[in-house]
Write a structure and sequence with these properties.
- The protein is of the alpha/beta class.
- It has one domain: Vaccinia Virus protein VP39 (Rossmann fold, 3-Layer(aba) Sandwich).
- The protein contains 5 helices and 7 strands; from the N terminus they run ααββαββαβαββ.
- It has helices at 3-17, 21-40, 75-88, 123-136, 154-171; strands at residues 47-51, 67-72, 93-96, 109-115, 137-148, 188-197, 201-208.
- It has a 7-stranded mixed β-sheet with strand order 3-2-1-4-5-7-6, with helices on both faces.
- The longest helix is centred in the first third of the chain and has 20 residues, at 21-40.
- Bound molecules: S-adenosylmethionine.
- S-adenosylmethionine (SAM) binds next to helix 1 and strand 2.
- S-adenosylmethionine (SAM) binds at residues 7, 10, 14, 52-54, 57, 71-74, 77, 98-100, 115-117, 120, 171, 173.
Length: 214
């Protein structure tokens, strides 16, 4: 399947589950994700992009000032995000857009955040997606990704493997994208990599690499 076809598949997956996404994720959201979303947004300000905003789970942690834009491929996920936006009274612009081909100008954002987006993107889309985020991030800006990885602990790994067909079916996601392997080719520098939940959810902080002549 080509990139366009894959994107139609991703959109369809999330259009289907949009209304129950928060419910499906509820136990994970409160036990795992909330505390780490807070860490992810520490010090974030200025022009901020939430790529693959989903139902807006990051919204409680958006900076109160500055420009915050959330984009998503799924209109139905965005509709849920709009409801959350109205409920929380957060000043964020929400736009239907492919994070891999945005219409933002070069070097626009101080911070580009993507939580559990790259685990959904197919292996072939990892590099083009990182390149696009690099293009729209300011030199010296931060790209912060929250992603899954398989645990090194044999028992936890085994349990994750049992879960993985469900995760693939329902979310179109996998635990083993290894996004960091594409960082260099995308013209990015890996500033920080650390686990925020056990050894299965990690934070990657990336920055556009200086190239000669820039
Ligand atoms: C697993 S959900 C994560 C949602 C949210 N970031 C969160 O932390 O709860 C992945 C989201 O990425 C969106 N998505 C997938 N591919 C995308 C793309 N190419 N451009 C923009 N959004 C995309 C999906 O529609 C979905 O809302």
């Amino acid at each position: 399947m080509d990139g366009g076809g894959r994107r139609v598949g991703e959109k369809r997956t999330y259009d289907h589950i949009a209304r129950i996404y928060d419910l499906l994720d509820l136990p994970f959201e409160y036990r795992r994700y909330r505390p780490i979303r807070r860490i992810l947004f520490e010090g974030v300000g200025g022009a901020v992009l939430d790529a693959g905003v989903g139902t807006g789970r990051n919204m409680p942690f958006y900076p109160p000032e500055g420009e915050v834009v959330g984009v998503d491929l799924s209109a139905r996920m965005l509709a849920q995000a709009r409801k959350r936006n109205a409920r929380l009274g957060v000043a964020a612009e929400l736009r239907l857009m492919d994070a891999m081909a945005t219409d933002f100008p070069d070097g626009h954002f101080d911070y580009v955040i993507a939580t559990f987006l790259f685990c959904v993107l197919d292996d072939e889309d990892q590099l083009p997606a990182l390149r696009e985020l690099r293009r729209i991030c300011k030199p010296g800006g931060d790209i912060r990704l929250l992603e899954y990885a398989y645990s090194r602990d044999p028992l936890k790994r085994f349990v994750m493997r049992l879960w993985s067909p469900w995760v693939r079916l329902v979310y179109g996601a996998t635990f083993d994208r290894n996004t960091e392997q594409y960082v260099d080719a995308a013209g990015l520098e890996l500033i920080e990599e650390r686990f925020l939940f056990q050894d299965i959810i990690k934070l990657l902080v990336l920055r556009p690499r200086h190239t000669k002549g820039h």
